[in-house]
Amino acid sequence: MRILLVEDDEMIGESLQKALKSHAVNWVKDTFAAEHTLNLEKYDLILLDLGLPKRSGLDYLVQLREKGVVTPVLIITARDSIEDRVKGLDCGADDYLLKPFAVEELEARIRVLARRRQDRTNPIISCGDASLDPATYTLSFRGRTKRLSVKAFSIMQILLENPGVIYSRSQLEEKIYGWNEEVESNAVEVHIHTIRRKFETDIIINVRGVGYTFPKVRVSS
Q: What is the pTM of this model?
């Protein structure tokens, strides 16, 4: 899951980015940086603090919903009054979590929001003879179904949603890893090798010197 974390506290931001290692977490420290980031990339969830510099998280949330942005928003804040919680939810938040909180509870809230989102749309992503199920992190290809790791699943999702588009290694890295997440030099190649080993080598086509693609049309051998 791609998560945008909007949090100005250095310690909390760093801790959450490390704790949510099963997700691709991009961390920004104010709502203007968040606005810029959302214009460039799509996210599955926004973790939003309220007490932010320059513009409050609540004002930003109102602006998001007025623009028609439907990305789920989970408020994380120390403001614990009933009035604050009601106001946050009324302004468009999908959930409200008080600081300090256990990472396990945050992960559970994230899973609930992910399930709600899947219930609103068809979770199966299909292209040609391949299909992905985000509910189970499984890939089906030519009669074989296997579960994938989070990163391998993200690579296949990018390729299946954009058939015929060639992605370089660096482009895939940017999409599946958070900004401050350490990436090994051959990480993408390792994930692609694993996918091919589980299925067939032509599930992902390597365009030499350019990158990787899931072709719109497959040529029979």
A: 0.59
